[in-house]
Automatic annotation (TrEMBL):
This is YceI family protein. InterPro entries: Lipid/polyisoprenoid-bd_YceI, TTHA0802/YceI-like_sf. It comes from Polaromonas jejuensis. It comes from the Bacteria. The keyword Chloroplast does not apply. SMART domains: YceI. Residues 26-186 form the Lipid/polyisoprenoid-binding YceI-like domain.
Length: 187
């Protein structure tokens, strides 16, 4: 099984208010430099995995971070737990139900500065027909040619009806899933 990359954020440039940088739309994602990893627990044992197919965009002005908008779309069928059987189970009706809900989506609604390149990101996560508001800390650095957003958050899978039926027992599969992301974006 894969071990997720460290949660620490290493970014190329830090933009602070007053640097004179204009609003930039980051619409292209560097797929080789970006990742989405997750860690869950099954019967107390960590299970690591990743999603191999996803896309992101970000409209961000360091002078007005509260007006930032963005979107992350994840092809749920691209799950890779390191085990073929687990991947096949995860795309089925009791888990992601990819035939009816092929994609997870995070709609960024606001970025609030916390200082020293740290931001509070707020938005709405939608998985399997359920949507939940989410807020989490991240580090964001940008230049005119590149932006990197990295962080982690804990998602409660049962809030999205992921792992129904026998899989709803949190003694077997924990409700909390830690998601780590590193997104490299360019205009």
């Amino acid at each position: 099984m894969k071990t997720p990359a460290p949660l620490a954020l290493v970014l190329p440039w830090l933009l602070l208010p007053g640097t004179g940088v204009q609003a930039t739309e980051y619409r292209q994602m560097d797929r080789t430099g970006s990742y989405i990893h997750f860690t869950s627990r099954q019967m107390g044992v960590p299970v690591d995995g990743e999603f191999r197919s996803f896309d992101a965009s970000l409209a961000f002005n360091p002078e007005a971070p509260a007006q930032a908008r963005g979107q992350l779309r994840i092809a749920l069928s691209s799950i890779d737990t390191g085990l073929r059987e687990a991947n096949e189970e995860a795309v089925g009706a009791q888990w992601f139900d990819v035939k009816r809900h092929p994609e997870a989506r995070f709609e960024l609604r606001q970025i609030q500065p916390l200082g020293t390149g740290r931001f509070q990101v707020s938005g709405v996560m939608s998985i399997k027909g359920s949507s939940q508001p989410m807020a989490f800390g991240t580090l964001l650095k940008a230049s005119g040619r590149q932006a990197v957003m990295e962080g982690s958050f804990v998602l409660k899978r049962l809030d999205f009806k992921v792992g129904e039926g026998l899989w709803g027992d949190v003694g077997v599969v924990a409700n909390e899933v830690t998601v780590q992301f590193h997104l490299v974006l360019s205009p």
